[in-house]
Amino acid sequence: MFYKGFYHFFYQYNPQGAVWGNIVWGHVVSKDLIHWHSLDPAIVPSEWYDIKGCWSGSATLLPGDKPAILYTGWANSSQQLQSMVVPKDATDPLLREWVKIPQNPLLIPEFGVNGSSFRDPTTGWLGHDGKWRILVGNKRDRRGVALLYKSKDFVHWVKAKHPLHSSKLTGMWECPDFYPVPLSGNEGLDTSATGPSLKHVLKVSLDDYKYEYYTVGTYLRDMDRYVPDNTSIDDENGLRYDYGKFYASKTFFDQNKQRRILWGWINESDSVSDDISKGWAGVQAIPRTIWLDSVTRSMLLQWPVSEVKALRRKKTLKQNMDLSSGSVVEIAGINAAQVDVEVSFDLPRLEMAEFENEVGVNSTAEQLCSRMGSAWKTVVGPFGLLVLASKDLNERTAVFFQIVRYRKELKLLMCSDQSRSSLLSDIDKTTYGTFVNHVGSFKEKSISLRVLVDHSIVESFGEGGKACITARAYPTLAISKDAHLYAFNNGTSTVTASKLIAWEMASSNDITLR
After folding, report:
1. Which of 121, 143, 210, 307 suits a disulfide with 70, CB 3.0-4.6 Å?
2. Residues 28, 36: contact at Cβ < 8 Å?
3. What pLDDT digit, counting tens, does each position of 239-251 carry?
4. What Rg, from alpha-carbon coordinates, does the chain have?
5. Where is 415: in which H helix or E strand?
């Protein structure tokens, strides 16, 4: 949240080691979303209702600019409860101390509610009747459920007779998020915003699958029901913020700059013993601005917050670079271990007849990316970038596009291939992928890609944020100044990188607040 000139970020943290357990709420603050200062934990286990851990929750700014945090406390192996903390001194812009209110716990699972899967309260919003509303993630058998609660004072809560929404066979809904988006423009809206010129988004994190999906739809305020549009798939096959390693995400409305910002957790892909050895595990993605695509009105767009540009340093520019079949061209002159790359690829003229063979019609995009890889030649692609690459290319992470004939249509496939990312064998090298939504034909089309690399993290944004993939890589050769960046094309047709800019990025270190 943004409060008195500072962004506040709270996160799940184990102060006793780089493994799960002993969960408290870590707390950092920033003026610019890039440089962060660590404070003492905001919430720690201390009462019977949270003694086994203080789990996820959300902050809400109440009338009078009063912050409040609802969070899940783990009381015992079968009971999760919702409680609240408020600032000890609301005049302190850093909000260094938080206190648990005497009415805790505020939400106890009623009869018929699965108390062992009852967690992650959302940011509150005001309804048409002046009452506050929140969601709590739950499940009923294998049906994912967003339980709805109402309150006049944000302290005394009553469960609604029906959930806001649910979906069969999706399992436990963790970290639900519910918010409005305008039909046009990229500005954000307050969570309580109403009106005819907006839609709502419901995002859930699927505990059974360890990824997320979202739908775009209509919030029926009088009925307190959410109805996804018929363009939204409402199950584990639905749209995702990110098709890679990205989970337990949360948005907030940044009233400072009138935008909605998305945070997401990037887990490790190495072993627990590796995490213990290095002393840390898990990072946050670069915060992203998120908004509704005004063309389709059925999907969200994402882009790194503009503040990240402040880290850009030395740059390399390439223009009208023809990449013939088999080309691998180094983008030299920068340290590629920390880099921000933006590139536009111009495609050759295409005809459907050129794509004679269908690719696996029963395969998902991720399966196609995994099976075909960055070396599989087609008419157009794969083409893209090799990041965190060693000089001899024995280590490389390939982020690329490929046009394929899939179910009698030409589709744009975006992949992040980690199969050759490291010489280490005991790490997860899953290849991720998705089809990128596009408007019109591919004839003489330009396709854009942005990739942010930070040592072991690769965040990729296709077509202006229509598709995002986050991955982890653990190179042994391509580290520090020995990391290289290449543009490549393994397709049979020439692709032109009409403009490629790569910026070496400065480190974002802890700073002293003034």
Report:
1. 121
2. yes
3. 999 999 999 999 9
4. 23
5. strand 409-417
